[in-house]
């Protein structure tokens, strides 16, 4: 048990935990064991007792097991293509695999459950109820774990379901390895469904918003495709890849004397910006009177997070965090994210790091010189225009911002003259004083309407923070539609405490991604929290089943504002512009009276519904006891629109 987990559990009463744990076991029994891990009752088999796929050129795929207790028949058992594939996934570290079962990858499915899941370091096959949830799970997991994982989907219809989530991962620059089944040989199609689900070029469906795709024709080709796909997914700008795996290749028996390629997981080194460009950027920043730093998907790791803090403090420059990741501490004196207009009007030099919507991010800054440091310039597709409008840039440095920051810091320290240190310190003091006023204003605004109904989003976030502030918490979804109150009220000082939003704003992302991120936090003993919309939950409610079935601790707060509130506002804006009134603008936009606590309970999640503001605090405390026991908990909060 980690220190974070111990600290989390210390805050809960022993009696409450015991009661919650007992209720969880009762729910599991009532649902046929639905909250237990699938393989929890199966003892792991030592790796030596299994035939292994080759890791070194001298090894053979038919290496004999060394476990003397293994029966002769087991030792003589043949290997199949999918056995080799499962071993490759394991050796590449793609061990967390959410999937919806499909007939075009039954070979791989069987190899995972009867081979990959029985090792000392097993593959973990997770049951999800929709392919979009599976990809979103992998998306959220990757942002927390800092590494890609795989998801498997059925051919054609499965990839069609997955496509929206792959687009989110594309826009969010998240590494996801999506394996889709395939059945390309007409002679192997057994019935009319096989024909309807067959496709000559399945990955064509998602080619415009993936970094790489391939349909391997042999096992050596599979090895090369998997490693190349992983490398492409993980190299900045990161993104999803798709491999179509033929069922016949999965089911092909491997000959005893057949040699298959070795597999080695590559260490990915991100591309750094050109040294000349970095030196020029450092000179511009050092000479600026009012430099400004803007970051979006800049800090992928704790090291990147720390480097950005060091850069800001060296310059004593204000930072605007666009929120793609947690790039900068939320309550830091230089964090001016909620004072963007005033900061940019004074700016004379702006450094924008991994900022996707650069044109909007730097507005208004009519007289500032703009430096762009981004890996986006390395890889761009023009059909889906996630690249946004292009502003005038004075210096464009193609390079991963996080990887380039150390060199930029070194060049900046050398470029800042000694005589400027006093002015730099004064600049920082001015921004720190301004920040105090912003924080006081945010606290006052969060308290507005404290006791009104529906419950304000400011109160929800304030009440939650009051009970979790001393725990190792992590917000596993965006906060844009819930007022961005955590960014204004919570003290986020660690990189893992926020992972940003979906990227493409495709509804249905949040439930699966929150569960995937919570799964990644589970081994660290952290407290995952998400406050997400009712419309988003209704797009992918089955994610709650996965959380319960696989006992993934997560505090899921439902922002139950009764509908698609952003669209209500948009239709109202149109109606007002046309002088038609807003009396009917709710039609097609509202979801009245839905009880998401009942929905959560039906999935095996401990759930509550809160309507009265005065009931919120106790409901949060009860839910935290459930999460501390190792299970998910949901609170349906009837809340304001934003």
TrEMBL record:
Domain Thiamine pyrophosphate enzyme TPP-binding, first and last residues per copy: 484-637
Family indicated by similarity: Belongs to the TPP enzyme family.
Origin species: Sphingopyxis flava
Keyword Signal: yes
Record keyword Signal present: yes
SUPFAM superfamilies hit by this protein: DHS-like NAD/FAD-binding domain, Thiamin diphosphate-binding fold (THDP-binding)
Record's GO cellular component terms: acetolactate synthase complex
Full protein name: Acetolactate synthase-1/2/3 large subunit
GO molecular function, one term: magnesium ion binding
PANTHER family (alphabetical): ACETOLACTATE SYNTHASE CATALYTIC SUBUNIT, MITOCHONDRIAL (PTHR18968:SF13), THIAMINE PYROPHOSPHATE ENZYMES (PTHR18968)
Listed GO biological process terms: isoleucine biosynthetic process; L-valine biosynthetic process
Signal sequence coordinates: 1-28
Coiled-coil ranges from the UniProt annotation: none
Pfam families to which the protein is assigned, alphabetical: TPP_enzyme_C, TPP_enzyme_M, TPP_enzyme_N
Annotated Thiamine pyrophosphate enzyme central domain residues: 278-408
UniProtKB keywords: Signal, Thiamine pyrophosphate
Domain Thiamine pyrophosphate enzyme N-terminal TPP-binding: 81-194
């Amino acid at each position: 048990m980690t220190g974070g987990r111990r600290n989390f559990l210390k805050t809960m009463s022993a009696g409450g935990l015991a009661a919650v744990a007992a209720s969880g076991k009762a729910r599991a029994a009532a649902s046929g064991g639905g909250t237990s891990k699938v393989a929890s009752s199966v003892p792991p088999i030592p790796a030596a007792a299994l035939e292994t796929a080759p890791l070194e050129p001298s090894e053979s795929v038919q290496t004999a097991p060394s476990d003397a207790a293994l029966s002769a028949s087991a030792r003589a058992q043949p290997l199949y293509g999918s056995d080799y594939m499962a071993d490759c996934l394991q050796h590449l570290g793609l061990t967390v695999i959410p999937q919806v079962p499909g007939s075009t990858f039954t070979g791989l499915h069987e190899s995972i459950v009867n081979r990959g899941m029985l090792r000392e370091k097993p593959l973990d096959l997770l049951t999800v109820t929709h392919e979009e949830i599976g990809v979103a799970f992998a998306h959220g997991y990757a942002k927390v774990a800092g590494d890609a994982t795989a998801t498997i989907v059925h051919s054609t219809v499965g990839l069609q379901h997955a496509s929206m989530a792959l687009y989110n991962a594309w826009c969010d620059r998240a590494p996801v390895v999506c394996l889709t089944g395939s059945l390309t040989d007409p002679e192997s199609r057994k019935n009319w469904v096989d024909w309807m689900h067959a496709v000559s070029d399945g990955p064509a469906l998602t080619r415009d918003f993936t970094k790489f795709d391939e349909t391997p024709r042999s096992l050596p080709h599979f090895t090369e495709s998997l490693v190349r796909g992983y490398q492409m997914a993980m190299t900045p700008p990161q993104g999803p890849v798709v491999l179509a795996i033929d069922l016949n290749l999965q089911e092909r028996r491997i000959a005893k004397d057949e040699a298959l390629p070795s597999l080695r997981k590559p260490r990915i080194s991100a591309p750094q910006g050109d040294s000349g460009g970095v030196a020029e950027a450092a000179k511009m920043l050092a000479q600026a009177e009012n430099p400004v730093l803007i970051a979006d998907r800049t800090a992928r790791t704790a090291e990147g997070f720390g480097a950005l803090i060091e850069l800001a403090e060296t310059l004593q420059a204000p930072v605007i965090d666009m929120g793609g990741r947690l790039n900068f501490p939320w309550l830091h004196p230089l964090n001016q994210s909620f004072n963007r207009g005033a900061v940019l009007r004074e700016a004379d030099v702006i450094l924008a790091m991994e900022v996707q919507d650069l044109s909007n991010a730097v507005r208004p800054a009519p007289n500032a010189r703009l430096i762009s440091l981004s890996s986006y310039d390395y890889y761009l597709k023009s059909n889906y225009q996630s690249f946004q409008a292009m502003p005038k840039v004075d210096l464009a440095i193609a390079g991963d911002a996080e990887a380039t920051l150390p060199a930029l810091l070194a060049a900046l320290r050398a470029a800042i003259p000694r005589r400027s240190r006093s002015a730099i310190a004064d600049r920082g003091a001015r921004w720190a004083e301004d920040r105090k006023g912003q924080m006081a204003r945010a606290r006052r605004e969060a308290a507005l309407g404290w006791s009104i109904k529906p419950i304000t989003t400011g109160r929800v976030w304030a009440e939650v923070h009051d009970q979790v502030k001393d725990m190792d918490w992590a917000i596993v979804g965006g906060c844009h539609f819930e007022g961005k109150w955590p960014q204004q009220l919570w003290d986020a000082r660690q990189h893992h405490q926020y992972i940003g939003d979906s990227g493409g704003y495709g509804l249905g992302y949040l439930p699966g991604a929150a569960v995937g991120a919570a799964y990644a936090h589970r081994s660290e003993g952290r407290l995952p929290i998400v406050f997400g919309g009712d419309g988003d939950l209704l797009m992918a409610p089955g994610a709650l089943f996965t959380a319960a079935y696989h006992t993934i601790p997560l505090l899921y707060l439902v922002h139950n504002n009764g509908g698609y509130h952003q669209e209500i506002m948009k239709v109202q804006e149109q109606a007002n512009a046309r002088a038609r009134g807003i009396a009917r603008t709710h039609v097609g936009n509202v979801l009245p009276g839905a009880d998401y606590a009942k929905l959560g309970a039906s999935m095996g999640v401990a759930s509550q519904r809160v309507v009265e503001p005065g009931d919120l605090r106790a409901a949060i405390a009860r839910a935290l006891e459930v999460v501390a026991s190792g299970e998910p908990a949901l609170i349906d909060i009837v809340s304001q629109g934003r």
